[in-house]
Amino acid sequence: MSNPYPTTPRRGFHDLSRALGAVHAELQQLVGEVSLAAADVPANGLPAVADIGPVRARAVYRARRQRDAAFGKDMDLFGEPAWDILLDLLVADADGRRISITSASGAANVPPTTALRMIAILEERGLIERSDDPCDRRRSWVTLTDRGRAATCAALSWKEK
């Protein structure tokens, strides 16, 4: 009797296709949970943090982590640590939480050195800012700048049809 699951490239593509299908189904479910019907976009065209941005940021971040789990060792194909950091900071901002550099690095889901490099780049480009923790000199906080918040919300403000 022949093996119904050969270990050939064709089998690998089949597994990949099935994983993509599962991610697609989850994204469709998440899109269904988010409605822009009541969102008012200000005159400058950029939604405020209180609008749809944090809701979408949570959904997008969750879908990205599910995609990573579905692809397992191949998850490195989809790395966007800067985007993951921005999503995490937007959600934290909406929840009134402060995020340490260590926590932001964890949100990036990459090695710490890569996350720290991305945090430095985001800071250089004016999208985030660091501040020292007055109670613990070993810790620094990161937050979105107004520019970073506006750009992240704008990227999340697509309209559903």
Describe the structure in your own words.
The chain has a three-stranded antiparallel sheet with strand order 1-3-2. The protein contains six helices and three strands; from the N terminus they run H-H-H-E-H-H-E-E-H. With 161 residues, the chain is mainly α. It has helices at 9-33, 53-71, 81-95, 101-107, 112-124, 146-155; strands spanning 99-100, 128-132, 140-144. The model is unreliable at 31-41 and 46-50 (pLDDT under 50). Helix 2 (53-71) crosses helix 3 (81-95) and helix 4 (101-107) crosses helix 5 (112-124). The termini are far apart.
Chain-wise SSE layout:
Elements: H1 9-33, H2 53-71, H3 81-95, E1 99-100, H4 101-107, H5 112-124, E2 128-132, E3 140-144, H6 146-155
Antiparallel strand pairs: 1-3, 2-3
Would you state the CATH class? Answer: Mainly Alpha
Which band does the percent of strand residues land in?
5-15%
Spatial gap, N to C terminus: 51 Å
Q: Into which percent range does the helicity of residues fall?
A: 55-70%
Q: What would you call the shape?
A: globular
Q: From the 3D coordinates, which CATH architecture would you assign?
A: Orthogonal Bundle
Low-confidence stretches: 31-41, 46-50
| CATH homolog superfamily | Winged helix-like DNA-binding domain superfamily/Winged helix DNA-binding domain
Number of domains: 1
- What is the mean pLDDT? 77
Number of strands: 3
Summed up, the helix count is: 6
- Secondary-structure element sequence? HHHEHHEEH
| Structural class by sheet pairing and helices | mainly alpha
| Spatial order of the strands forming the largest sheet | 1-3-2
CATH topology group: Arc Repressor Mutant, subunit A
Radius of gyration: 19 Å
Q: How does the major sheet shape up?
A: 3 strands, antiparallel
Domain HTH marR-type: 70-161
InterPro entries: HTH_MarR-typ, MarR/SlyA-like, Tscrpt_reg_MarR-type_CS, WH-like_DNA-bd_sf, WH_DNA-bd_sf
Pfam family, one: MarR
Keywords: DNA-binding, Transcription, Transcription regulation
